Amino acid sequence: MSEMENIERLISRKLDGELTADEQLVLDRALVRNPEYRDLFADYERIDAECGDVLGSILVTSKRSNHRHPIRVAASGATNGGTVGGKMPRLWWVLPVAAAACIAVFGMIGLHSSDSDNPIEEPSIVKSSLADDPATPGYSPIRRRQKPDLTSRPEYVEHIRPRNNERRSPIDYGIIPVSTQAPRLERHRDTGIIGIPGEDGKIYLIEVQRTRTYGQSQPHGRRMIRNRGL
Amino acid sequence: MTLAVREVDPDQPVVEAVLQGDRYAFGELVSRHSDWVRAVVFGVLGDQDRIDDVVQQVWTTFWEQVAKLRDPTRWRPWLYRLARNAAVDAGREVTRDRKAATVLRERVASSNNGQMADAVDGLERRRMVRRAIDALPDIYREPFVLRHVQDWSYREIADVMDLPVDTVETRLVRARRQLREMLRDRI
Fold first, then answer.
1. B106 and B165 in one domain?
2. Domain termination site, one of B92, B115, B134
3. Is residue B104 part of a domain?
4. Residue of B nearest to A68 (CA)
5. Is there a single domain that holds both residue B56 and residue B111?
6. How many CA atoms lie within 13 A of B8 on its CB side?
7. ipTM field
């Protein structure tokens, strides 16, 4: 590599911000020593700046015009289809209409459901194998969120066993039901485990089936109404 | 004690989501990397008017074929090749224009009339620069455009183009040398 080629390389690295301190020193000395190198550097610097301006303007102009051409993903396969970025697709009204239809259907189902008067089912009381050993170090049924051994046969705890098979309401267990009459848009049920220290020193696990209602009555949109628990 | 520093690609989770068919992640990927894909397409095609069509085709192909990507960590070179191939295909249709640019390069390079430099105004000068960039060979123009549009380091350009860093540097030096030969007395 001739000296001129080496200086060209150093100038190029300088313009690209890749020059090391040692290379900077070499380049500075060369520029001081030789006016031809200074002209070379001035040419490269000027041309580089012009090219940067031109390329920037070309791609920025083109990018602005690209807003008229959003990336349209071809409909192929189950997950593909639709438009990413840019304007709304032509069938923009389909989604709101479908959402409204879904809300109406869920509303109708909720109004006519057979258990609408008793949205929270009676919890079943389970004495699990974990509850048999309250002396386990560090045992905390709530904090550990460890699943009890539900494969063992559940048995009712004596002091809260229903008498004469009478049907107890959730209020009898300290569970305050929340009215899900309005808004009744969407309901989900799940099961939770609550640990209660008993009078006999044992910890009893109660399996509670909870009903959650998702509504839109609040001004902030989606809101979840929770059971307050015990 | 030595600490191993591992470079983490901030786009990798987005790419993983795209692989799962997440359209919103795909939109995010497009917004993050649209600029350099445009630069690649322009670097190969050199035709400003057709960039939009080709870039759209690139992203559509990416979405349709991303499941075929064997190594998700190598998605950038893969996207680069998609962009480059699409631009090359589109460029075959404008070969005639490219030949005209080559003729212009020769004409510009052979002319030494310094008085013309005083006559051209800013607009004409920009056009001349543009034509000079167009007249560069593809292998020099692509890293040159990426360097100027994205302000990428040699390493970043090399990663995307799947080239050695030294090769990128050499191509940039040669691109500048040819541009200087074409524009030295013009601007």
1. yes
2. B92
3. yes
4. B52
5. no
6. 5
7. 0.71
The residues spanned by each domain of chain A are: 3-71, 95-225
Residue A12 has pLDDT above 90, yes or no: yes
Q: pLDDT by residue (tens digit) across A160-210?
A: 455 555 555 555 555 555 555 544 455 566 667 777 777 777 777 777 666
Beta bridge partners of A124: A207
How far separated are the first and last CA of chain B, in Å rounded?
55
Its pTM surpasses 0.80: no
Domain containing B42 equals: 12-92
B5 found inside a domain? no
- Report the C-alpha gap between B50 and B54 in whole angstroms: 6
Rounded to an integer, what distance in angstroms lies between the CA atom of residue B128 and that of residue B179?
11
- Residue A155, classed as helix, strand or coil, is coil
Chain A contact probe: residue of B147, B154, B167, B174 with most A CBs at under 10 A: B147
What residues in B contact A80, CB-CB < 8 Å?
21, 23, 63-64
Q: Is A5 helix (H, G, I), strand (E, B) or coil?
A: helix
For range B140-162, the mean pLDDT: 89
* Chain B residues 1-30 within an 8 A CB cutoff of chain A: 21, 23, 26-27, 30
In a domain, B119, yes or no: yes
B99 found inside a domain: yes
For A76, the token pair is 């192929």
Asked if B42 has any chain A CB less than 8 Å from its own CB, the reply is: yes
Calpha distance B25→A228 (Å, rounded): 37
Return d(Cα A100, Cα A180) in angstroms, integer.
20
The two structure tokens encoding residue A37: 């190198």
Same domain membership, residue B166 and residue B112:
yes
3-class DSSP assignment, residue A190: strand
